């Protein structure tokens, strides 16, 4: 296991710029609309030939109410029947993809996200899961990771029982903050009792893992108030915990316009919240995985990182990096070998494509040799905090020292600041630098270097 993080305030403040989260490289902002459905179809044909195991993502965009901080692709409605037309189209998309695969591929990982997947009725949930089982071969409960995002306000014991009986064995709960003042300010009033009930149900029903999402930087948060929430969460003992930085981008996300910038914690207060949260979590036995993620030492993410087997994709950190990813639903992203592609983000365009019997691809990118090389390097840095540049360049017949001469020069100030060590071809991020791994990855991002400004494209690294 890696050692505890070291917080260096002066370095954090100096390096705290905007940058990608690297759920992919190249990032989604590089996707092009010149990438057509035929390109995706060709990738599916290649996938059929290779018989690579799959990770599936299903996007359920519906929410009964809007959370003001949210930047997800969503549809706000309290009418559960509004999901029926969408599910009909989603079914047709699954059939279209299955026709291209012309087989029943093995699935090791499944995730339903949103939106609020538990918005669906029990009948709708059962029908969708059964449909996936008809077209894909889901491995058994021991080897498979089947997760779903839970809104405790939209779930109860019968719902949890249904999910477990279908095959889900992991859940992710949105909490964000237990403080009632903060909850009211972001329009997400969620009692501690509702959350505790889901934990009790998940443990009783033998779900394998519980993840919790928190957000720091929301209106009226203070270090003291957030630590109260964190202590309550630690008492529940989730297996994994994510503490996301709220990025206030009202020009991009309309619901955020209901949050007053004057109500947000100051930049120093945000850093204080994160610093004290890290200290509290490490004292409670959680390991820092990277990119806002923490896990107990026996969690699969922590053990995969210790073995050098951790990966990162559009679903975040994963132990299934050897799987190709197929996304279903509006705005979903797929990753198959050397291509990334995204479905239409506008619901009407998504529906129209599928009704025309066309794969609903809006944009994408096919990676070249340079992309593949840099993807491997960034993946190692973001997951394992070290990389041997010579090792990654060797399969491409590239002299690492010549190819990355400019990047090595850019890394020198980070060496001087003791964020990294660079010995021969081995780059290792120190405990001082692990919170700033995104900055180090950005040095190897060829696309970012060509942009005049990344302002308003990405959140701050801290």
TrEMBL record:
Reaction(s) the record says it catalyses: coproporphyrinogen III + 2 S-adenosyl-L-methionine = protoporphyrinogen IX + 2 5'-deoxyadenosine + 2 L-methionine + 2 CO2
Ligand binding (S-adenosyl-L-methionine 1): 57, 114, 149, 333
Matches recorded under PROSITE patterns: RADICAL_SAM
Entry-linked SUPFAM superfamilies: Radical SAM enzymes
Pathway linked to the protein: Porphyrin-containing compound metabolism; protoporphyrin-IX biosynthesis; protoporphyrinogen-IX from coproporphyrinogen-III (AdoMet route): step 1/1
Cofactor, how bound (note): Binds 1 [4Fe-4S] cluster. The cluster is coordinated with 3 cysteines and an exchangeable S-adenosyl-L-methionine.
Record-listed [4Fe-4S] cluster binding positions: 63, 67, 70
Family matches, as InterPro entries: Coprogen_oxidase_HemN, Coproporphyrinogen-III_oxidase, Elp3/MiaA/NifB-like_rSAM, HemN_C, rSAM, rSAM_sf
Gene Ontology BP terms: protoporphyrinogen IX biosynthetic process
Cofactor(s) of this protein: [4Fe-4S] cluster
CDD domains associated with the record: Radical_SAM
Main localization of the protein described in the UniProt heading: cytoplasm
Entry keyword set: 4Fe-4S, Cytoplasm, Iron, Iron-sulfur, Metal-binding, Oxidoreductase, Porphyrin biosynthesis, S-adenosyl-L-methionine
Annotated residues for binding of S-adenosyl-L-methionine 2: 69-71, 115-116, 176, 188, 213, 247
Protein origin, superkingdom: Bacteria
Location in the cell: Cytoplasm
Radical SAM core domain segment(s): 48-284
GO molecular function, one term: coproporphyrinogen dehydrogenase activity
Membership in a protein family: Belongs to the anaerobic coproporphyrinogen-III oxidase family.
Cross-referenced NCBIfam families: hemN
Self-association and partners: Monomer.
PANTHER family from the UniProt entry: COPROPORPHYRINIGEN III OXIDASE, OXYGEN-INDEPENDENT COPROPORPHYRINOGEN III OXIDASE
Function: Involved in the heme biosynthesis. Catalyzes the anaerobic oxidative decarboxylation of propionate groups of rings A and B of coproporphyrinogen III to yield the vinyl groups in protoporphyrinogen IX.
Protein known as: Coproporphyrinogen-III oxidase
Natural source organism: Spartinivicinus marinus
